[in-house]
Specification:
The chain is 45% helix and 17% strand. With 478 residues, the protein is an alpha/beta fold.
């Protein structure tokens, strides 16, 4: 598909919010609760609300769409990531067909069908199971493949057989909560939303006596996008949502790439984004996943996920880059990693320069100098974490070789591995204070490093197999 085709399709997406639709400004973006100046989103930006815009906004940051002015303001805030949708209406569950791809998991299908009974029509796609899948119940039917064609083909076949305007994909090893679909469907009252996804949590997270690997999966699964609602955009903290549980608008459905057996959900999200559709992640709705219970299978799955990076890099270029960083930030990070006084001085000069430039862009924002310094310092911190994560995850084979030949680098690598893991644990705990951490920081760090080794091994495996090292190529911007 050409860039012209993508632009034409993007322009065809209706972005007009309907009357009655509401948005809520994230009050964390309002410095000292002053709605005139909003700083937030990803990437971070500042919006200055005019007097007219403030007149459309309630004191708690709520805006209701009622005319073109409120429609334009609400869309801009949503697309900036500074506000979140609060739709008041949407399609009903019987406007949705649930599609379940499965191969050889009769018990999982039975459990899932019991959870969704009476809510929506269901199509179970038996993807060449050795023992054919059997179903019972009204509104449930089966499509059988004579041989295994993969989950992408199974989902596509189910979607093609559906007659409703919306399709919910649920894997056979998940169990949705009672109101999950109702919670998600309201987002489709925004006509530009093509995909909505719930939070995926561990099915056994409340059970006592689970093993170490299962506790790690329950607390830090790669399927769990976290407790914060957000837009799903490549290059942000939530770049995609997993196909284990997602709802799509059929007219926006790009179909899963049937040549992919891994990362097909990431590819679908990125193609949908390129076509101009919005994607929302709403953690209020939860779907429980029956995680793997032994460490070997958990790590093998991470390795398998890593093999998909080469396919994504081939199709989406820089979206799949392991590091995306500005050149000044790269210089600052490298300077800090030298752990020398000269390196620290260089980093401080760079951060100061960035702060001064940012201060000029913030204009008359109250406390602009402090905000600019905070944002610049935070950016360097994120840059350090990004670099540390890449060393431990994407580039660990190179780091291992350097650690063998250089004692100084070996010490640095050990410090990075420990510090990145502890910081990641703290950030995870702070992000979701409503739940107790699944494990302590040291145990988490050890398992995170094993997780990274497995994923990185799969990434290099995929790169050699595909003879394409684009997934290892960093992106540096000006």
């Amino acid at each position: 598909m050409t860039a012209v085709d993508d632009a034409a399709r993007s322009a065809a997406v209706d972005t007009r919010l309907p009357d009655g639709f509401q948005v809520q400004i994230d009050m964390r973006c309002a410095r000292r609760h002053d709605l005139r100046y909003l700083v937030g989103g990803s990437p971070t930006r500042m919006l200055r609300l005019s007097d007219a815009a403030l007149g459309m906004t309630s004191a708690d940051g709520r805006i209701e769409v009622c005319d073109n002015a409120t429609r334009t303001l609400s869309r801009r805030l949503l697309d900036a990531g500074i506000a979140h949708p609060r739709p008041m209406f949407g399609p009903k569950p019987d406007d949705v067909t649930i599609v379940v791809p499965v191969r050889g998991n009769q018990a999982g299908v039975d459990r899932l069908l019991a959870a969704v009974a009476g809510t929506s029509p269901v199509i179970v796609v038996d993807d060449g199971s050795p023992e054919p899948i059997h179903v019972t119940g009204d509104g449930v039917r089966v499509i059988r493949f004579g041989h295994n064609r993969g989950p992408s083909a199974a989902r596509n076949a189910g979607a093609a057989a559906a007659t409703t305007d919306f399709v919910a994909f649920l894997d056979s090893d998940v169990v949705p909560s009672a109101e999950w679909l109702t919670m998600l469907l309201g987002h489709f009252s925004d006509p530009s939303v093509g995909i909505v996804a719930p939070r995926i949590v561990g099915l056994s997270r409340t059970r006592h006596g689970v093993g170490l690997a299962e506790r790690y999966e329950n607390g830090y699964s790669s399927l769990d996008m976290g407790p914060a609602e957000c837009a799903v955009v490549p290059g942000t903290p939530t770049p995609y949502v997993p196909s284990a549980a997602m709802v799509v608008r059929r007219c926006a459905f790009e179909e899963f790439d049937e040549s992919l057996r891994v990362a097909e959900d990431v590819d679908l999200c990125w193609r949908t984004h390129k076509a101009g559709w919005r994607i929302r992640y709403d953690p209020v709705a939860e779907v429980a996943h029956d995680h793997r219970t032994d460490l070997r299978s958990v790590l093998d799955r991470r390795r398998y996920y890593g093999t998909g990076a080469a396919h994504l890099a081939d199709r989406h270029g820089g979206f799949a880059a392991p590091v995306v960083m500005s050149i000044p930030m790269v210089a600052a990070v490298i300077a800090l990693l030298t752990r020398t006084k000269i390196g620290l001085a260089i980093a401080l000069i760079i951060v100061g320069h960035i702060s001064i430039r940012l201060r000029g862009r913030l204009g008359d924002l109250p406390g602009a100098s402090v905000v600019a310094t905070q944002m610049s310092t935070r950016a360097v911190g994120f840059g350090m974490l990004q670099a540390g994560g890449a060393i431990c995850r994407h580039y660990w084979p190179v780091a291992a070789v350097l650690a063998v030949v250089s004692g100084r680098f070996r010490n640095l690598a050990i410090e990075i591995a420990v510090a990145e893991g502890v910081v990641a644990w703290v950030r995870t705990v702070l992000a979701d204070p409503s739940t107790a951490p699944a494990m302590g920081p040291l145990t988490f760090t050890a398992l995170r490093r094993l997780d990274d080794l497995a994923y990185g091994a799969g990434l290099w495996q995929g790169a050699f197999t595909q003879r394409d090292f684009g997934a290892l190529r960093p992106v540096f911007t000006k």
